Amino acid sequence: MSNRLAKEDSPYLQQHKDNPVDWWPWCDEAFQKAEEENKAIFISIGYSSCHWCHVMEETVFEDTECAAILNESFISIKVDREERPDIDKHYQEVHLLLNRRPGGWPTSIFCTPQNKPFFAGTYIPPESNAGSIEGMGFKELTRLIAQKVKENDAQLFKNADEVASFLNHTEHPKEATVLKEDFTKNFMLQAKNNFDTKHGGFSVAPKFPHASTLNTLLTIDRLYNDKSAKAMVTQTLDAMRKGGMYDLIDGGFCRYATDEKWLVPHFEKMLYDNALLTGVYFDAYLTYDDATYLQTAKECADFWYNFMSEDNLFYSASDADSEGEEGTYFIYSYEEVYELLKKNNITDIEAKLEAMSVTRSGNFEGKNIIRFEDGIIPEWFAEVKPLLASLRASRAYPFIDKKVQTSWSSMMIHSLFKLGACDTLYKERAIKHLDALLKTMYKDNILYHTTLIHKTPKVEAFLEDYAFLSQALLSAYKQTADELYLIQAQRFANQALEKFYDKGVWSFSVGEFTTKAETSDNTYTSSVSIMIDVLLTLSSLLEDEKYAHFAFKTMEYNSYELGRKPIFSPYMLTQALRYVKGARIIKASLVNLQNNACKLSKIEYPFIQLKVSDESGFMVCGDTSCFANTTDINELNSLVANSF
Fold this sequence. Notes:
alpha+beta; Glutaredoxin; Glycosyltransferase; five-stranded mixed beta sheet; four-stranded antiparallel beta sheet; globular
């Protein structure tokens, strides 16, 4: 018999509808019942493509003994962190406070009947002897908590009150620091300190792509011709696309690698990773004129278009697991690849298998992840790749979360417009996706955060939705010169300022959970930093200083930490450099701008805006004055450089 989650739209909640746990969705009724019956509250937060969420479901939530304890003594609430990032951010803060380290998913929170948290964990195995980080297994822990709540244990309730008081405390920065280019010195020192000189990237295993860090290194190299920045970018991008973390068959990046060399991923694919990395690889192509980076950017965008979209709307994620095991869809046995190539009369089979890292012993649990260790994709792979894809076609595809999210979709649309400067196919796609997103998620003057595809949205937008959508609209204006996009971007920016901004501080959400927006680039780029980008762009294009003022006040509020630890907020550092150095606006006729879009995007100076004018050639301007005019587009690089 299904529980209450059967009535929910969220694919993640639907995955748990047949658990023996008597789950509640997040609602007032659940909290009222907990208080009335004096039951502890268990809040479990995850998402549909999360591997360890699936493991906890299998080992704990499908276990009848665990379920019996929860059903007797707890009110159990399931939350989709992609549907309700405001709730997730609140409880990630709880986890950090209680454990002095960041959390992750699944997130396991225990609260008093009055909904005051006192214990936070991530994956908790059923039995204590299974090596839980928290020290005991789920059965022992829940029995202990149930007993203490039933006995009204004074210490437990005191601890919960202390946590609540800490959460309600607002800490302001110690002092403001003058924004200056010297912040890049600290950033480079910190990036070099984290950099893996052997395999690229900025951590040991598990290894995440750190798109914002790569973006800022690209900016620094374009500004200062920094060889160290270039080396960190190119080594990381080259290593990530060898195969494993990057899917050489279908395209697209997995969320992270479990090893240091980017070979073995958790196989889930997230829209935000692929959107941001599409942009990074394309910017690397513009900077270094390396066609392999352009190819990777296009393959990422094509994967999401071919596999992960419907009616011009993007799905949010695909799972790591299929047929009950992780990676089944993605990996190959030596024998099946050998026979496939033999059947299709491919020559030099043994040499090709060796080049693709396909061996009898395998490189992942006895099977093979396709990978080119030297990083060079040979020409013959164009013939072999469709054959390998045909093997996958006979397998069950991993579960797809068909949730549409304004923020994540806007990230990909922004990257598509970037690609569109050099290939109009992607510009045309970007326009269709943007129009479909606005039609779906902006209704009756209300912007929404998420909906299941073809359903009516219910969850209203958060700061990240306003920020990334505004950025995508400004990219649309840059590539089309359609002023409607500029007007819409201004409208959403104004609404964001009104709803979420207060004297340099931004809230992520308001209402039920008023949570402060992060300034660090964690899972993806901080929405605060994206808003700074949007406001500075609006200031330049509209010649309206109030937007630059709000951007400056935001950076000033965060300047002390930005100067000391810029590695945590790389995109804000990029915007600080933009503010200090100033934007450059290229003014030209619409025909000139559109016919030369790719060349204009290759101008070395990273902070360029485009604006339609009656100029016969190209005019180079700042925010308040113009510097030079030319009819030769090839002179723009030097003219921009000489304008400082």
